[in-house]
Amino acid sequence: MLGPVVVGLDGSRESLAAADWAVREALRRGLPLRLVHAWEGGMSPDESELPELEAPRYWARRILRDAMDRLNERYPQVYLSAEQISRPAADALVAAGDEAELLVLGSRAFSGFGGFMAGSVALATVAHAARPVVLVRADHNLEDEHEPDAEGRPSAHTPYRPVVVGVDPAQSCEELLAFAFESARLRATPLRVVHTWQVPYMPQALEAKARRDVQSGAARVLDSVLGPWREKFPAVEVTELVEEGRPAQQLLHAAQDAGLLIVGRRIRPARVGMHTGPVAHAVMHHVRCPVAIVPHA
């Protein structure tokens, strides 16, 4: 049985943009949307009578209530639920995400200030989540998911922008490609699959041939990996981008006009630290479109 789409809220502009994206994704997937707010006061906001907790208790309730009202008005066809969780934010979000089809959080660039989703909590959640996590910027809106119209103006009625996924065939790709192909199918949009390669240092006389051989081999491997997925998703138009260079740089370039970028994160046995991997770390901080981080073995 599929879980809901879950979105973490903290009242920031980032988390409100994440809620808007999440409700549209829930609609695309035919799933309910669960809104979660972490109460860090040490107990349920309904249990304490301490006067000094009255203001934070009021704002905690209002964050969820305002978001519910806003989303119900815009998307009445999506079933919504809301919950306040009395746990530290990252722990609460990881636990909620474990029961979800995907978890959606607000995010912003590496520098600057914002709600707790913009910094360490988002990073810790991504590093420890067992399900895909999507990060959404504060300025992202419905029109950003779609191509501009014929006059180059933002539009919510044009086709969706492409989905981009970064693939390393040397790693497990099943979860990553399943999420990518399904995301492209739901949007009826092309899927760009990016695989990078590099030539090790060698004498200049041998470099040109080595470059051709490495590129050709990388293309063959990627085509072999994608073969079963093309058969499973025949309606998805796939473009293979086999590029020389560093993965993060090539993904940043490929995602400039994308509606969604998807990267993998290897699951580590120890739930200590905030290890997301260099590629995921780079795109989380520098890509403007929503970024999905998919954990894999």
Characterise the protein shown here:
This protein is of the alpha/beta class. It folds into 2 domains: 136 residues, Rossmann fold, CATH 3.40.50.620; 149 residues, Rossmann fold, CATH 3.40.50. It contains 8 helices and 10 strands. Strands 3-2-1-4-5-10-9-6-7-8 form a 10-stranded mixed beta sheet, with helices on both faces. β2, α2 and β3 form a beta-alpha-beta unit. α3 packs parallel to α4 and α7 runs parallel beside α8. The relative contact order is 0.14.
List the SSEs and their pairings.
Blueprint lengths: L4 E4 L4 H17 L3 E6 L15 H21 L5 E6 L3 H10 L3 E6 L12 H9 L4 E5 L25 E4 L7 H14 L3 E7 L6 H29 L5 E7 L2 H8 L5 E7 L11 H9 L4 E6 L1
Parallel strand pairs: 1-2, 1-4, 2-3, 4-5, 6-7, 6-9, 7-8, 9-10
Antiparallel strand pairs: 5-10
Helix pairs in contact: 3-4, 7-8
